[in-house]
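Below is how a single chain appears once it has passed through the pipeline. First comes the sequence as given, then the structure the pipeline wrote out for it. We keep one example in the README because the format questions we get most often are answered faster by looking than by reading.
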Amino acid sequence: MELARVVDRLDAELRTADYADLDASANGLQVGPDDADIELVVFAVDGVRETFEKAIEADADLLVVHHGLSWGGFDRVTGQTYDRLAPLLEHDLALYVSHLPLDGHQKLGNAAGVADVLELENRVPFGELGPEHIGQRGTAADLDTPDELRDRLEAALDTGGQPVQHLAFGPDEIDDVAIVTGSGIDWLEEAVAADADALVTGEGKGKAYHEAKEAGIHVFLAGHYATETFGVRSLQSLVEEWGLETTFLDVPTGL
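Resulting structure:
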C-alpha cells in the first residue's frame, strides 16, 4: 500500500486536521516521501533513537508513534535532533505521529483503552481542550473500592515494575471515574467539577496532592508510558485490518 494512502486513512480516522490549532505536536506524517510503498508497519509509544533502531532492525517501512520528533518545528537539525533524524533518512523509514488526536479518539484512544481495562460504563467525553476532548469519564460498575481500581490498573498496565501511585483522598466507594492519560493532571479541576470520585492519569505535579486532598477526590498516577500504550496498539489492530503486516515495540520507561 502506498504511504500516502496509509497516511490519508489514518488522518481521516483520527481527525488529525481538527487538532492542528490545539496541539504542539506536528501530527500526521513527520518524515517520509508520499510515494513510498508500505508493507511492514511498526508501532511504538515514543519516536526516539531506540524505537527507530528497532524498527530498522525489523525492516519496517513505517513507524507509527504517539510522541514524535516535532513539537513546534525545528530551528536547527543538529545535536540530538540530528542523531534521531539520521537513522530515519538513512534507512528510508517513514514516521507517522498522532498525539492529541489519538488521546481524544473515543474508541481507539488512550483514555478509551484505560476505560476498557476498568470496564467503565455510560462513557462520555472528558478533558476539554478547546472544542475537543482528550479523555473519557464513566461509571465503574464492577469496581467497589479504590484498592480494586488500583489493582486493576497494576495488573493490566505496563508500568515497568513501578507501582501505581494513589492519592487516597476520595470516598470509600468508587462510582464515577475520569481519565486523561499521560500528563493529564491538569484536568483535576474538571474532574472535581464533574463530581468524579477519581481521576486516572499518568503523572502528577506537586500541587496536585493538596488540590486532591482539599477536593476529596482520588488520584491514580499509573505512569505516562503505561497509560499511553493503548492508542498505538488500537491503531495497530486497525492497520492489520487494512492488510498490512504490523508489530509493536514495547519500550517501557517506568515513568
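Residues 56 and 91 are 7 Å apart (CA to CA).

See the next section for the split statistics.
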